[in-house]
Design a protein that fits this description.
By secondary structure, the chain is α/β, with parallel strands linked by helices. The chain has helices at about 15-25, 45, 60-80, 85, 120-125, 145-155, 185-190, 250-260, 310-340, and strands at about 5-10, 30-35, 90-100, 115-120, 130-140, 160-165, 180, 195-205, 215, 225, 230-235, 240, 270-280, 285-295, 295-305. The strands form two sheets. Strands 3, 4, 5, 8, 9, 10, 11, 12 and 13 form a nine-stranded mixed sheet that branches. The structure holds flavin-adenine dinucleotide. Flavin-adenine dinucleotide binds near residues 11, 15 and 165. This is D-aspartate oxidase.
Length: about 350
């Protein structure tokens, strides 16, 4: 069989990292990324990019932990290399604070991030409305630079990238031997998945270079995440809202909530407002499927539905998707050699 041709649909963090994992693990494959939008016009560009996992209720915790561990290890290695600044990856220390002590004082990811410990009384004095807190060091991706870095790596490994809206995965069957669906919220229309829904998020990106530590309210709604150049202030979680227009009332509310946590933010400048739709599901859809029409088959691997945690687990899910692609190719090669006999 000639070099198998694989199309990856989607150029957010999931599509680009999946294409890279396929190119790395299957050097004989020809990989192409097809996407309606590329950076800076994806949901992934809007994200804060903090490595603090979201919990998927429908996925076993040990699987989520493995995805997070693999992603953390991958980005930690980048943060320790000369690529760190170009890739937009850096370590950041800070606090997650709670108004009441949470039921689960040790989240499943506490031994993956660095130096996880309860906050001291002296540290908690900074947050008079909060009674409990966790201090740790994690990683943050500055999302647009990270996406561009992934694109650069893909080009260097010979992956082609084209702007194209795919209306139906079947339309790719005559050009490709296999397809990977990384369409994020676009998968709802692309494969008719009604279990996938948007959770709208609005964030502010501000200039406040004196803010060096992250602060996250344990309810996950209010957060301050310093990046290399800008600080992300959040946020909102609006289920089933498809609006991509910034809401001025929400901007003021986010800013006020963040200033309550970190009063010095009143001096922040150059406020930019961004909105994105988290591709949400009970669990990430990471599985093989075979489409078939008139005796012709098209193997598909789905990798979408990462909701509020796509950056935190992207490398782990990309590796698993690449493994599934490898299985599809082995099955194709097996059937083509049987056909020759
Ligand atoms: P996307 O980035 O949306 O990419 C989907 C791609 O598919 C796009 O390129 C699109 O053009 C393409 N596409 C769609 N349909 C088609 C089609 N029919 N044909 C061709 N192409 C198609 N996660 C974290 O881990 N940490 C955080 O701190 C964090 N903060 C966030 C803050 C906000 C405000 C938001 C909105 C999200 C945040 N997230 C965070 C979540 C994270 O952004 C998502 O989980 C992640 O970006 C999903 O990536 P994706 O590649 O699946 O989707």
């Amino acid at each position: 069989m000639a070099a198998p041709k694989v199309a990856v649909v989607g150029a957010g963090v999931i599509g680009l990292s999946t294409a890279l994992c396929i190119a790395e693990t299957c050097p004989g494959c020809s990989v192409t990324v097809l996407s309606e939008q590329f950076s800076p016009n994806t949901t992934s560009d809007v994200a804060a990019g903090m490595l603090i996992p979201h919990t998927y209720p429908g996925t076993p915790i040990h699987v989520q932990k493995q995805w997070f561990k693999e992603t953390f290890a991958y980005l930690f290695a980048i943060s320790n290399s000369a690529e760190a600044s170009e890739a937009g990856i850096h370590l950041v220390s800070g606090w997650q604070v709670f108004k009441n002590t949470p039921k689960e004082e040790l989240p499943f990811w506490s031994d993956v991030v660095l130096g996880f410990r309860p906050m001291s009384k002296a540290e908690l004095q900074k947050f008079p409305q909060h009674r409990f807190g966790q201090a740790f060091t994690t990683l943050k991706c500055d999302c647009p630079p990270y996406l561009l870095w992934l694109e650069k790596r893909l080009k260097a490994t010979g992956v082609q990238m084209y702007t194209r809206k795919v209306a139906d995965l079947w339309e790719l069957h005559s050009e490709y031997n296999g397809v990977v669906n990384c369409a994020g919220i676009g998968a709802r229309q692309l494969v008719g998945d009604e279990k996938l829904f948007p959770i709208r998020g609005q964030v502010l990106k501000v200039h406040a270079p004196w803010v060096k530590n992250f602060i996250r309210d344990g309810d996950g709604l209010t957060y301050i995440y310093p990046g290399i150049h800008r600080v992300t202030l959040g946020g909102t979680r609006e289920k089933e809202s498809w609006s991509l227009s910034p809401d001025p009332g929400t901007t003021k509310d986010i800013f006020d909530r963040c200033c309550t946590l970190e009063p010095s933010l009143r001096g922040a400048q150059d406020i930019e407002v961004k909105v994105g739709l988290r591709p949400s599901r009970q669990h990430v859809r990471l599985q093989r499927e075979v489409l078939s029409q008139g005796g012709v088959q098209l193997p598909v691997v789905h990798n979408y539905g990462h909701g509020a945690g796509g950056f935190s687990v992207h490398r782990g899910t990309a590796k698993e998707a690449a493994r599934l692609v490898g299985e599809c190719i082995a099955a194709l090669q097996g059937s083509s050699s049987r056909a020759k006999l």
